[in-house]
Every structure is written in structure tokens, then in C-alpha cells.
Design a protein that fits this description.
The structure is a single chain. The chain is built from three helices and two strands, in the order αββαα. The protein has 78 residues and is mostly helical. α1 runs antiparallel to α2. The longest helix is centred in the middle third of the chain and has 17 residues. The N and C termini lie far apart (29 Å).
């Protein structure tokens, strides 16, 4: 990949604990269903919250559209 994303801050697991991670994913899913794919942050399909949660909890950087769509489809059960 020509323009590879580099996380200079470093990737560490468990910056947020498992309970917070799961609670935020449930909240995203609830708002997605209740508001037909959007919340006050914007449209779920364009949102960066899910990749951020994975970065802070699992220490992985989701930098590929395919990976992000796969994770979001899992979270939003679509």
C-alpha cells in the first residue's frame, strides 16, 4: 500500500475495558436501530466510532474499508 497509515501513538490493548467496549457497541446498535442508521453524531455508515472503539480496546487499527464494513455489519447486525 502506497499511503500506509502509521499510528505514531502506538497501539495498545485495553485502553478502554471490556465492559465499556461492549456497552458502547450496544449503544451504537440501539441508536442505529432506533434512528434508522443515524444518531446525533451522523450516519452510522460514515461514522468512525466503531473503528475507534476497536483501536482503544483491541489495539488494532482498522484502516481498510472492507474491514470496517465487516465489523460494522457485525455490530449493526446487517
Amino acid at each position: 500500500m502506497k499511503n500506509k497509515i502509521i499510528c505514531k501513538a502506538g497501539l495498545r490493548k485495553n485502553i478502554i475495558n471490556d465492559d465499556v467496549f461492549k456497552r458502547e457497541l450496544v449503544l451504537c446498535n440501539m441508536l442505529y436501530e432506533k434512528n434508522k442508521g443515524k444518531c446525533c453524531w451522523g450516519k452510522c455508515k460514515d461514522c468512525g466510532v466503531i473503528p475507534l472503539l476497536y483501536k482503544l480496546h483491541r489495539g488494532i487499527l482498522l484502516d481498510d474499508d472492507t474491514k470496517i464494513k465487516k465489523i460494522k455489519s457485525k455490530v449493526f447486525k446487517i
